[in-house]
Design a protein that fits this description.
about 350 residues; globular
Length: about 350
């Protein structure tokens, strides 16, 4: 098996999930790391025994990696992805794909023209509870989702935004709690519903963060072609990080799940329950609990697709589905008080 050379662009907090995965998965090698902050790039390079760059264009030119992982501020995902694709490099990007839906569409089309893999991280789909619920919808035991509800109540202190030069801004983050935190649970709900949205209504508010201009609270309703509805509520000025909660009303029962567990109640009175089983591929040297442990599973699947062994599961084309909803939430909010 030919070794694939991968590079990580952006050495912030989330990068450890990618760096540890690359250095532990069979058939991969870490070609280089890159960060505009020299000390951060150097620290990551020393930890993972590789080269450090501060300009990703120079990295692409000199190292000529087979793939890059984008762990950048949201507004840089599009230019970095497109630069890499034009250089003939596969791309795996952290969410969101971009700030603007049109930019995301352009990147998907570019990847298709270049014949390259373009994946987007939505690792929560690989959680054991998510996989069970999706399987029971698909195999018909639960049947089609009639309605879904997503609730997220987390805590982000004032310095989470005050200490960043891009978070909490429209032009660089593209929003607040919806695009940064709730995007994962909204993606799960949309994945379960598996239909095209026909309308999106939302209201956005800033109720607890003085150092940012985007929303820390959002709620709304998505209607779908198949008649299903998705109700959502998200806020990050709660005192603690509560487990996210998804509830589904389906043809043949109901499901309640978080990232850690799922309980399915069928109309015949039977109940099926499961707890999340962390992957055994990689032991991460850091990371936040709410990121879960499934990055390595998705990254492994990305590289199987890059080798031509199977179809890419969460491609850019697939990720456009939730990107469209996120962008519609921001495009025409019913009430925007931020």
């Amino acid at each position: 098996m030919k070794t694939i050379r991968a590079a990580v662009i952006g050495c912030g907090n989330i990068s450890v999930m990618h760096l540890d995965s690359i250095t532990h998965l069979e058939g991969l090698s870490l070609a280089a790391v890159c960060d505009v902050r020299p000390e951060r790039a150097k620290q990551a390079a020393e930890k993972y025994h590789t080269k450090a760059y501060t300009d990703y264009r120079k990295l692409l030119e000199e190292e000529k990696p087979d793939a890059v992982h984008l762990c950048l501020p949201h507004y840089l995902h599009t230019p970095a992805a497109q630069e890499a694709l034009r250089a003939g490099v596969h791309v795996l990007s952290e969410k969101p794909m971009s700030i603007r839906y049109e930019d995301a569409q352009e990147t998907v089309k570019l990847a298709e023209r270049c014949g390259l893999q373009y994946g987007v991280i939505f690792q929560c789909r690989y959680n054991t509870p998510s996989q069970l619920v999706k399987r029971r919808i698909t195999d018909g035991r639960l049947g089609t989702v009639k309605a879904a509800r997503s609730v997220l109540t987390w805590y982000r202190p004032e310095d989470y935004y005050a200490g960043s030069d891009w978070k909490g801004t429209w032009e660089k983050e593209g929003g607040g709690v919806i695009i940064d935190q709730a995007i994962h649970s909204l993606d799960l709900a949309n994945w379960f519903i598996a239909s095209s949205p026909v309308s999106v209504e939302a209201s956005l508010h800033n109720r607890g963060h003085r150092s940012m201009v985007v929303e820390d609270t959002g709620e709304g309703l998505v209607r779908y072609e198949n008649g299903s509805t998705l109700f959502f509520y998200a806020m990050n000025n709660y005192p603690v990080d509560e487990p996210i909660e998804l509830r589904l009303v389906c043809e043949h029962g109901t499901a309640r799940l978080s990232y850690d567990e799922a309980v399915i109640s069928y109309e015949d009175g039977t109940v099926e329950a499961v707890k999340n089983r962390p992957q055994q591929i990689v032991s991460y040297t850091g990371g936040k609990p709410y990121w879960g442990s499934q990055h390595a599973v998705q990254i492994d699947q990305f590289y199987r697709a890059a080798r031509g062994l199977e179809e890419l599961e969460i491609s850019g084309k697939e990720a456009l589905k939730i990107q469209r909803i996120i962008c519609e939430i921001y495009r025409n909010p019913v009430e925007r008080t931020v």
